[in-house]
Amino acid sequence: MSTETILIMGANGQIGLELAENLRGIYGENNVISADIKDLKNPAGIYEQLDVMDKDRMYEVIKKYKVTQVYLLAALLSATAEQKPKSAWNLNMEGLFNVLDAAKDGIIKKVYWPSSIAVFGPTTPMENTPQYTVMEPNTIYGISKQAGERFCEYYHQKYGVDVRSIRYPGLIGYKSAPGGGTTDYAVHIYHEALKTGTYECFLSEHTALPMMYMPDAIRATIELMDAPAEKVKIRSSYNLGGISFDPSQIAAEIKKHIPDFTITYKPDFRQAIADSWPKSIEDTRAREDWGWNPKYDLASMTQDMLDNLK
Ligand code: VAH
Questions:
Q1: Which of 184, 199, 225, 266 is the most exposed place for a label (fewest CB within 10 A)?
Q2: Residue 182 CB–ligand 1 contact under 6 Å
Q3: What digits encode the pLDDT tens for the residues 137-146?
Q4: Catalytic pick from 141, 174, 190, 213?
């Protein structure tokens, strides 16, 4: 019987759905509570309707289930945040403060909060971007993630809060749909390749970005949260590398399985966001501190995506 009870806020999102499934497998159905702003008709497992901005309601849920850990995944991502800047800032920041304060007040023991490679900006070195470097994000989402990292480190240093974080690259999976991201093309392309045999990409063909297959990202998250506290030396957020590719390269990999697949390019407002981000990430500290080691490359991810989407 696990002594840990986990609350996942933003559990209906791209990461949340897969993370909840994995955490239920580890901690048991009754020790993982999924929560999100929408009510769900037939959720998998225990579910509560919860708005991260509603601190009282969050405390109610934490007390009801004796929650010990919170994974805060609720946020507005890069593309949506550019269209709703104030709502994105409020949600991304207030949600984080509510959870960090719960840990500071001793209501919960451990916090997971996702950052993103969006914390880097156009003046950051673009290839093999290091853990510590110039960070001048010029997107609302990136600014909120940079500020969030500063508060995570502050709450750890000043109040001893055990908050842990990863700068996710673009995440690709088949079990859940992405929403409002600039890297979402790398998920849509697989669906369209199977459904219509062609894909119109909203980024230009040589826009390389750091990406990761969802099974690797979920494993990294759980490995970081399971690591002994003294090994988690970085309390802002860890760089996490994975795969780096551009739309022409993922299209070429798909064509190995679907020879008639075609791609066209029609860059939109998300091109400027992608242009401000690194092309690849260096993650030595995650490897040294808590043993991070990615398993998937573009070929094995494409094989697994197409096998599971067929
Ligand atoms: C986005 N998928 O596109 C997210 C992620 C690095 C990208 O943060 O906004």
A1: 266
A2: yes
A3: 999 999 999 9
A4: 141
